[in-house]
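Minutes, project huddle
Topic: does the predicted pose make sense with adenosine-5'-triphosphate bound?
PN asked that the exact inputs be recorded in the minutes so nobody has to dig through chat later. Recorded below.
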Amino acid sequence: MNKTSEKTDTVMARTPEINSAGARPGCGEKLLEINNLTVAFNKNGRRGVVLDDISIKIPRGKIIGLVGESGCGKTVLGSSIIGLLPERGSEISSGEINFYKSAGERENLLNLNYHGMKKYRGSKISMIFQEPMSSLNPVYTIGSQIDETIKNKNRDLSGAEIAGRSIEMLSKVGMPDPARVYSMYPHQLSGGMRQRVVIAIALANNPDLIIADEPTTALDITVSEQILFLLYTIRDNFNSSIILITHDLSVVANVCDEIYVMYRGSIVECGGSREVFSSPKNPYTIGLMEALPEFGAHKRPLHVIKGNVPSIFTKIEGCKFKDRCARASQICECAPPVKFSSDTHYYRCHF
Ligand SMILES: Nc1ncnc2c1ncn2[C@@H]1O[C@H](COP(=O)(O)OP(=O)(O)OP(=O)(O)O)[C@@H](O)[C@H]1O
Ligand SMILES: [Mg+2]
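Predicted holo structure (tokens), as shared on screen:
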């Protein structure tokens, strides 16, 4: 069996097999490094911290999973990287987001103004947003929307050359009959085809980093597996790094090289897929895993993490998960320390 078909089988099987890529967090050539990023929203005179001292390393050519329940801050983190936080009400109070153009040359994206950031968007960093329909303009053809992205970064290309590239991009993301789809409108396509178009736009200028925010949530299982397989091919063929944002741990287990688990704006556990899945340490990560049907295959009721992620405007002292954690005790009133279970696997917990 060749390498590609092995990967297809793994994704298609949709079992919680642990990705064998064996990558270690932060290992390999660095592409992006977030240090101590804190972001808050101000609303009705109240301030809520949505990202609390986040640090993440993204190596080149890897798929990094960012998981956590709804409201943990995953989309806000992705939007912070690409400079698309809402202008009103958001506040980056500390930290840096360093993009490595080469091993020795880096730029802190937080120092860039609108025009500086525009040079990165689409060409070096692109984002696939949660809902494909909201990223596509219903009154323009698919072709003209991909053309526009390519034209923005390639002013010297002729119309015919741009159209040729757009059709090539559609073909690269596995679109059936790309030349015909080029002239169609978004409403004429199925959900899976629209998601492929959004991915084609994200890839159009060969970015170094793709932030894919729940790219499969709105899709049925077979299409979502095809899209996940596409992420593999993108990583391998373009050597792009991908941040895959999802609340589905089984997707991460199958696709990602490394995992960051996020809870209420903090990274609570991080490591290579293999080590986190084989030996999760933080009770929140354990709770997410036990809630997976695949992991609970021994005819026992699925585990449910009681309660919800607290609002960013609720003040919490100490461990933010303590009110939902079965292991919580007095000590959890203090902020949990960072503990290392290996050089590359760390978690925040008192236990
Ligand atoms: N513009 C905003 N103003 C105020 N609060 C916001 C704003 N955008 C997001 N939030 C809050 O920030 C928190 C994190 O939101 P975010 O969208 O990043 O969550 P998420 O992890 O992506 O969730 P989901 O899985 O549902 O997409 C939520 O509590 C949300 O209500
Ligand atoms: Mg989100």
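Observations noted during the meeting:
- The domain at 3-16+23-124+207-348 is CATH 3.40.50.300 (Rossmann fold).
- Residues 97 and 302 are 38 Å apart (CA to CA).
No decisions taken; revisit at the next huddle.
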